[in-house]
């Protein structure tokens, strides 16, 4: 941002805002205590390196073998999408983001579907059956992949249904695997949100939100609308 | 899709908990800009750090502030929803201003108070844009990413927000 492009009256605003209040000392103390408490958990445990230790010639072939094996593992690992917690988590966090697009309407020809598809997946219409009505939508990019999210609302609860383009992403390792009506789902908690991931048409779908009953998301995800919702 | 993992994964690194407290002041300022209340800003910052510190995180190099803004923004949305069921807190509750009027012959102290008052008049999306860029100091790109909006949208919201705050300051002075 070049300062020449910013008009003087805007610069006055910026100067003022940057000189705003400082955090109270008690907050600093609390944050430092939280950091001190969390640091041992968050710091990776690395084996200590022995300074000055004499090289051991007999170790070299073993090290070379291990390195070779690691290279093979790495090549194999890169050829598939491994446990994708961070991307799935980012997709789940989208359910907390604001809508940026209008809610899609229900397809009059197929009342179990919305008039919105992405990457070969058509979003379901849940208002008639479950009372969850489409409330908005947004499009994002996560690590180079396009995503589309439709938000649904029921009373004061809001959930997000995100479809991630590209190959499917393996669920997080700590996710619980369920089977609902023949559909395999993976469920985990993200803070106060419930998250389920599943596949439709070869795409990873992430349904997440803060709901009373954790089974709600499973029930919605697995709903086939008497065969109208393709998987 | 061979390019999928390359750009961001290689540039990511583990977020160091020991470096987080250095962002407390700026984050508090941004939280105050969003909420307009000292106690709410404290709660927001504490909850933001609690979420960040709950498990190991990987962020882009130099992207700590941008990441914190994203978490703060999410926390703010949750607070706003919860607050909808509660009475509005007293605006302008006591905060620790950096510039005091008695040591400020240039009038900056008055400007600071007016600017933060003006922030309260803004719609939420404009407040978020100005908090991310002008208060927290993120670049347009970082701020747009944190708020999950397009850069053009951010710049447009930012410009309108500055204009409205400037008008407020002009009118109130």
Looking at this protein, list some descriptive labels.
A: 231 residues, alpha+beta, seven-stranded antiparallel β-sheet, two-stranded antiparallel ribbon, 29% strand, B: 173 residues, mainly alpha, 2 strands, globular
* Oligomeric category: heterodimer
Rounded to the nearest angstrom, the distance between the terminal CA atoms of chain A is: 47 Å
Mean pLDDT of chain A: 77
Q: Give me the strand/helix succession of chain A.
A: HHHHEEHEEEEEEEH
Spatial order of the strands forming the largest sheet of chain A = 3-4-5-9-8-7-6
Query: Helical percent range of chain B?
Result: 55-70%
Roughly how much helix do the residues of chain A carry, as a percent range? 25-40%
Structure annotation, total helices of chain A: 6
Structural class of chain A: alpha+beta
Largest sheet of chain B: 2 strands, antiparallel
Percentage of residues in DSSP E strands of chain B: under 5%
- Which stretches of chain A of 5+ consecutive residues score pLDDT under 50? 44-55, 71-83
Q: Could you tell me the number of beta strands of chain B?
A: 2
Pair with the most extensive interface?
Answer: A-B, 48 and 67 residues
Rg of Cα set of chain B? 17 Å
Note the total helix count of chain B. Answer: 8
Q: Runs of chain B with pLDDT <50, length 5+?
A: 1-11
Structural class of chain B: mainly alpha
Radius of gyration of chain A: 24 Å
Strand content of chain A: 25-35%
What are the SSEs and their pairings?
The complex is a heterodimer of chains A (231) and B (173).
Chain A: H1 8-18, H2 25-42, H3 59-79, H4 85-93, E1 113-118, E2 121-124, H5 127-130, E3 133-142, E4 145-154, E5 157-164, E6 176-180, E7 183-190, E8 193-200, E9 203-209, H6 215-222
Antiparallel strand pairs in A: 1-2, 3-4, 4-5, 5-9, 6-7, 7-8, 8-9
Chain B: H1 6-11, E1 12-14, H2 24-35, H3 38-52, E2 58-60, H4 64-83, H5 108-120, H6 124-135, H7 140-147, H8 151-172
Antiparallel strand pairs in B: 1-2
Helix pairs in contact in B: 2-3, 2-4, 2-6, 3-4, 4-7, 5-8, 6-7, 6-8, 7-8
